[in-house]
Amino acid sequence: MTMPGFPEGVDGFTLAQQMQAQAHRFGAETKYQQVLSVDLNAKPKKVKTAKDEYFAKALILATGAKPRSLGLPGEADLVGKGVGYCAACDGMFYRGKTVVVVGGGNTAAGDALLLSRVAEKVILVHRRDTLRATKLYHKALLDAPNVQILWNSAVTALHADQRLTGVTVKDLQTGQQQDIDCQGLFVSIGRLPNSSLAQGQLELDADGYITTDSTTQTAIEGVFAVGDVRTTPLRQVVTAVADGALAVHHAESFLSQHNN
Ligand code: NAP
User: How far apart are CA 32 and CA 159, in angstroms?
Assistant: First the structure.
């Protein structure tokens, strides 16, 4: 993961742990509980978890987004055993191997290029005959000697023996299927926001992300949304961290104006 201040890069887990330790040093507390529902219009706002209920005048939603999956049989069981959703996180495990990447957007194109520097062979499987990814990626992908693109194609089955051993790819125009031996499959077909808690209470955009103003304030006063769950042109750790700083600043200001 690229992050300012870490010239060698840093993995997401380590970074999150360090951020949490820093927040705890300043008095933050962490509760590990599944949130079942929130009532954002209540006064005070209510958070119901599997264990407790919490009440607050201000609330910051930082529920993130999850990768979209293909929904194939066995996919969930093979996560970490050949199936991955983040090439930047797990790509290094595929040195010298054959890897399939699914998708045609910027993530898939970036993942395929990143993996082409590590893996022996990368096969990009895209359901249409043109990439959605920005032009910048097209030539780089076509020029990479170890990247093969299968157009108008879809991965229709996974093969495994403890770990992934291959995939079936279907040509969507001819209907022909082929089995491809591979050790890795990266599903890079976009993300889904974890916004179900806010559904029916906050305004969501067409893709389900929570809309906010530039201060991260949502349509409900005292409710803020930060990071990947909010409508934003860039979803990186630095933008999420910046959102957090904005939300805390504006939540403090909200609390000082509503202090009784
Ligand atoms: P995306 O732009 O929504 O692209 C998703 C790709 O996956 C599309 O090519 C889509 O096919 C395909 N797809 C969707 N559902 C599928 C399914 N069920 N089976 C097979 N293929 C499926 O998502 P993204 O690439 O993750 O990018 C998300 C956002 O982040 C974009 O705004 C992107 O520009 C941005 N981003 C930017 C960069 C960068 O600038 N370097 C890097 C990464 C992401 P179709 O094309 O047929 O719809």
Answer: 36
Cβ of 150 less than 6 Å from ligand 1: no
Does residue 182 carry a catalytic annotation?
A: no
9-20: b (≥16 Cβ within 10 Å) or e: ebeeeebeeeee
| Residue 118 CA from chain centroid, whole number | 22
Residue 106 CA to ligand 1 center (angstroms) comes to 6
The pLDDT value recorded for residue 259 is 77
- Assess whether the C-beta atom of 107 lies below 6 angstroms from ligand 1: yes
pTM of the predicted protein model: 0.79
What's the pLDDT score for residue 94?
A: 96
The number of the ligand 1 atom at minimal distance from the alpha carbon of 103 is: 7
pLDDT digits (tens, 9 = 90+) for 9-64: 787 789 999 999 999 999 999 999 999 999 999 999 999 999 999 999 999 999 99
Question: What residues contact 185, with CB distance under 8 A and at least 6 apart?
Answer: 78, 82, 83, 84, 99, 100, 101, 102, 155, 158, 164, 167
Any atom of ligand 1 within 6 Å of the Cβ of 67 = no
Longest Cα pair distance anywhere in the chain, in angstroms?
68
Task: Out of 89, 129, 179, 213, pick the active-site residue.
Answer: 89
Chain segment 211-240, per-residue pLDDT in tens: 999 999 999 999 999 999 999 988 888 999
